[in-house]
Every structure is written in structure tokens, then in C-alpha cells.
């Protein structure tokens, strides 16, 4: 780099604007020039190399954070969609016991809310399903009206064999999840026995009641793509369920709303609209533990990967400290030309911020490109390594999903630039404290 002293001693007492070769503030020009390696100085080249490493570290951290959060978002979106193919957006329960005798009236009342699109009655209980002498599995058994259930969930469209239309009152038919049917080793047309802990709803008889048994015919299987439902859920006719449980009506209502994200708000409004004795829960509360775990994991992953960006950003501290030490003579000459300590501080802040902005820009470009092509890149890596990252037997899904959200990208970019800018403060302050007389003593 050409020393600022080459501007001539005759200008020593001139104001800073006299050293501007363009309309750009001279602090920016000098800061940009310091970012480039000098051709004649090995030390400058080393400093520039450290700057490049810092820039690459920021880019790598930003890209990794974008990809990881996109995969988390995709995983949550995919599993939520599969859950909502079986779950209703909102469930209403009659907590007074004995069943919701006039569920049609309650459904009409709920339908007065402009965002409620459909309602379906249901009963639900836990039971043990038995096939043969040694095949038994626990399951959640849900009694439904197929013609209504199809309006609040997509399960009736997920049939692999048979049909939900076979769930007629008094038919004693049952539709099983595909994994549940596989575990019981039963096919359509086969028989399974359902064992309930007790029949009826009178708690006083609970200790003396023997388990009730009922034989069902398998009328079909469904596959929701979510192992929890495929391996532990079964459907029967609503009236059959009411008879088994001793209810005078359905256990409650399942509702579908126009916007799933507004379900918690709609549930709260319905609770205010409806008469007492109703428990209203939205889909996020039905699986609160799972959603809370995913949210916590996403936040922790953001914090952990942000530390990678922080480490790379704070490498700028060492880079700028070395630059300040190397450029003390230049700083002293700038001070004698009239540059203020604030202007000197700006020079090194420009240098550090430029590294942070460029690293962030490269990381955003790379991260967005990877996040948008995860569905292509991951299968290619799996084929290359001859392995499967997500086994369907273990995980909810077998493919790595991605859901890029620009809000996350903006937050990540702002965090990276902010950390880089923060890392420039100490070296820039140190440069502003350089005393011209001491810096030029041995020059």
C-alpha cells in the first residue's frame, strides 16, 4: 500500500477532505484499501489471509444455520401436515359425562363461528387388540361417522385396503393403521378381539368390572405416514363405540377451521361462545409435548450454530489488532493530516464490517441454494454413501424435508453482521488511541 505520506508534506496542515480522491469519504477508501493484501508486504498478505479465513468462517456458519433451520422447519411442517391428516383442528369434549346427547345442536352452534367449516362427532378410548393366541397390541380406538369424519380430517382418503364406508352401525367392523395391522399379522377380512378395561362409565363399578371383549372384522387399513398413528390407531363405527363404552351420545366433536394457524384463537373464541361444560382444545395442544420439543430443539440449534458464527466473527478481533499494529505509522500520518480519532476508528470499523458483510452475503447465498435443493442433494449423498439417513422404522418421515423461511434468513444475516460489527469495536478503539509522536519515533 502506498503510504498516505506520499500525498506530500505541503499538505500536512490541510483538512481531511484534501486527501479524498473521490466523493466517497476517505475513511471508507482507506478501510477498503486495508482490506486488500499489499503486493509487497508478506505481513499484509498474512493479515489478508486471516481476514479471508474469518470471512469463510462467517459464511460457513451462516450457511449451516440457514440449512439446519430450514430442515427443522421442513420437518415440523411435514409432521404437522401428517398429524392433521388424522387429527382435527379443534376438539370439543363434554366433560359432564354420559356423552354429548344433542351433538347436532352443538355443531350448529359452533358453525356460527365464521372460521369453523365442518364438525364431526366421535368417541375415543384405549383398548388392547388381540389376534390369535400371541399377537396383541395397545391402540387408541376412535368411533366415527365416516360421512362426517371426511369433512374434518383426511384419514378417509388415506385408505390402503378396504373402505371406511364399511363402518356402519352394528357392523362391528374396524379399520386399522397399516403398521398396527402388520404387528397383529391380520389382513382385511380377518378377525381381531378388542379388550376394554371396563364397560360403561360408572367409576363405582371400575374395581369390580371384568374386561369386556368384542370381536371385530377388519374392514380396511389406512396409512397416515406418521408411525404413531399407523401403529396405534383404529377406527370403528360411532354407535358401536357408544355401545361399548356405555355412552348415550358421542364423546365430543371434532372441528375443521379455515386456517390451521388460527386454530388456537378460534378455540378460545368457541370456548367463550359455547355453554359451560365444554373443554375445547386445538391441534397444537393435542400434541403439545412434541411441538414443544421441536421448538426447543430449534432454538438450541440456533444458539449452538450462532456460536460458530461468533467464533468466526471474533477472529476479526485478532485480524484488526494485527492490522492496527502494522499500520501505526499510517495512522500517525493520517492524524497529522487532520484525521480525528473518530475517523481513524471508522477506517477499521469499515474494514471489519466489510469482512462481516461479505461473509454473511456468501453464507446467505450458499445457505439458500442448499436449503432450496436439499431434496436433490441428500438423496445424491445417500446414493454415494450407500446408506439411508432417515429410516422409516425409526423416524416419522423417510426423506429430509426443507422449508426455507425468509424471516429466519433475515434474522441469521442480521445476527452475523451484528456480531462482526461488534468485533470491530475494540481494535478500532485501539487504533483511535494511537499517538502520532510515539508511532513515528522509530520510523
Automatic annotation (TrEMBL):
Residue ranges of domain MacB-like periplasmic core in the record: 51-272
This protein's record includes keyword tRNA-binding: no
Protein's recorded name: Lipoprotein-releasing ABC transporter permease subunit
Family classification: Belongs to the ABC-4 integral membrane protein family. LolC/E subfamily.
Lineage: Bacteria, Pseudomonadati, Pseudomonadota, Betaproteobacteria, Burkholderiales
Species annotation: Pseudoduganella rivuli
Transmembrane segments: 46-72, 300-324, 345-372, 409-426
Localization annotation: Cell membrane
Keyword annotations from UniProtKB, A to Z: Cell membrane, Lipoprotein, Membrane, Transmembrane, Transmembrane helix, Transport
